[in-house]
Amino acid sequence: MIQSASNFHVAIIMDGNGRWATQRGLARSEGHRAGAEAIRRVVRAAPLLGVRILTLYAFSGSNWGRPASEVMELMRLFECFFRAERAEWHAQGVSARAVGRRDRLPTRLLKAIEEAEEATRGGDRLRLRFAIDYSGQDVIVEAARRLQEVRVPDREAFSRLLAEAAHSSLEDATVDLLVRTGGEHRLSDFLLWELAYTELYFTSCLWPDFAVKDLEAALADFRSRERRYGRVPEHIAV
Ligand code: FPP
């Protein structure tokens, strides 16, 4: 259990669905379906492990460049997932939200997202956020456009603008731990501002194989880190 935080925030780049499927001679869509199962496992376990905010990178702004059939399958999978899960989320005290652009999403998906957000509003065991059509760079550009409306720009004001631009909220703006599965060591345009002081954890485990023990291992690794925020150890407030 993470001792402190009422707002302990883990973000995950869920990479490796395609490779998981290819290794088994399956279509990539099967990898995404297995990835959805991994999400179910992690969402059930996260609150028990002290996670209060969980942000999952489901579809980046650049993912529109994938073959149209894969994009369509992903959009359908997201829609079915939001419809299928919302009752359990509500029962488990999980509030769901999508962050990112909404204007390019299929109408049916947008409706499923809005209904799940409405049905789970107020859930306070876990704030579950799906980054869909999300680009960290685009969010920063959009916030910069809105900056002229702010009289005294500072970090908090800019964070607020970023949150507005991504349909997010200021309380979710700092991430404690970023996990990336699939073996690559990069951020892929995810939460660029929010990751400023985040601890990073990379694992070669492919996302569909990611199990509760892997989340526990990531959290154990996090607990072994000393977070200095640029200061020296004796000046860190406890
Ligand atoms: C990366 O794997 C994964 C994605 C681009 C999509 C993430 C989607 C899921 C985990 C499916 C379920 C999601 C929801 C919200 C129901 P990849 O296809 O890039 O894998 P590869 O690097 O092995 O090709």
Write the layout of secondary structure elements.
Elements: E1 9-13, H1 17-23, H2 28-45, E2 53-60, H3 68-91, E3 94-99, H4 107-120, E4 126-134, H5 136-146, H6 155-165, E5 177-180, E6 199-202, H7 212-223
Bound molecules: farnesyl diphosphate.
In brief, what are we looking at here?
With 238 residues, the chain is an alpha/beta fold.
Would you mind describing this structure in some detail?
The protein has 238 residues and is α/β, with parallel strands linked by helices. It has a single domain, classed as Decaprenyl diphosphate synthase-like (Undecaprenyl pyrophosphate synthetase, 3-Layer(aba) Sandwich). It is 41% helix and 15% strand. It has a six-stranded parallel β-sheet, with helices on both faces. Farnesyl diphosphate binds next to helix 1, helix 2, strand 2 and helix 3.
Largest sheet: 6 strands, parallel
Q: Helicity, in percent?
A: 40-55%
Please identify the structural class as seen in this structure: alpha/beta
CATH architect. name? 3-Layer(aba) Sandwich
- Which strand order does the major sheet show? 3-4-2-1-5-6
Radius of gyration: 18 Å
Spatial shape: globular
**Which fold name fills CATH's third level, the topology?**
Undecaprenyl pyrophosphate synthetase
Number of strands: 6
Order of helices and strands: EHHEHEHEHHEEH
Which ions, cofactors or small ligands are bound in this entry? farnesyl diphosphate
- Overall number of domains: 1
Number of helices: 7
Percent in strands: 15-25%
CATH superfamily: Decaprenyl diphosphate synthase-like
Distance between the termini: 18 Å
Mean pLDDT: 94
CATH class: Alpha Beta
Low-pLDDT stretches are none
